[in-house]
């Protein structure tokens, strides 16, 4: 239950991403700077946190040991996740982008076969490929149905081009985030804690953001003061607080694919928090009855995930019984 509570708390801070990205877009800010500035501002905060904990030397040692691996998967997990999210903010309200983002719940489950566990057997150490959590995936489909209901309603007011441009980047990001996160967790093999891993991935993704910033300068010029301040808020709330909470929540599942699926399902709470922010902070329109019905399905799916993860029985050897 602790991991789920942390996941829900993280989702409230993650929602600031969708709300402020939408606010920056409405005020004329470029999506490029919304993305770049968040990760640039994250660096000093994380350096202070890790430095005060005395863990900086160990992180630098890991980075220097496998620099290309860090660069690759950090660019996937952070760069190819957040840049598309910011791009999509120009094509719909924050709650809609947040709802589309919940596809990552299913994406995380589908990525399971790409990872393996090392177990001890009477014959010695054996590598076993993880299995897709079928029950968790079925529950995730309820969330997807809710998202589909909301998208059908929204599609009535958008052109086909706008729908595609607003949806495809988010789907891409939904797979990139859990893939990069899990790959780096596997690479670290427990040698780094959550704070070190987030800082390491942020530092390793900087070349990606440097390249994107060059494009931003050429296409939109430098960011305004207002956008810079809003990006700083996103960096602290979503980039630092939410990311650390979420990564810590996934870490304490200890690789249990069922509990991991439940933690990733808590991200659906972002839809509700984003909706509240859209209405009260951005004075956005109230969603239609159909959209509310879709959001209700998303919440139901999240709750079912939580109950499913708690209902797994543990045998005397610590193994999980059941699907």
Please tell me about this protein's structure.
The protein has 14 helices and 4 strands. The protein has 323 residues and is mostly helical. A two-stranded antiparallel ribbon has the order 1-2. It has a two-stranded antiparallel sheet with strand order 3-4. Strand 1 and strand 2 form a beta hairpin. Helix 2 (31-52) packs across helix 11 (225-251) and helix 4 crosses helix 9 (194-204). The longest helix is centred in the middle third of the chain and has 29 residues, at 160-188. Keywords: Membrane, Transmembrane, Transmembrane helix. InterPro entries: EmrE.
Can you count the beta strands?
4
The general outline is: globular
Strand line-up of the largest beta sheet: 1-2
Poorly predicted tracts of residues: 312-323
Estimate what percentage of residues fall within beta strands: under 5%
Query: Termini separation (Å)?
Result: 19 Å
How many helices in DSSP terms? 14
Main beta sheet strand tally, sense and closure: 2 strands, antiparallel
* Rg over alpha carbons: 20 Å
Mean pLDDT: 82
Derived from helix and strand composition plus strand pairing, the structural class reads: mainly alpha
Our count of domains comes out at: 1
Proportion of helical residues: over 70%
Write down the secondary-structure element order: HHHHHHEEHHHHHHHHEE
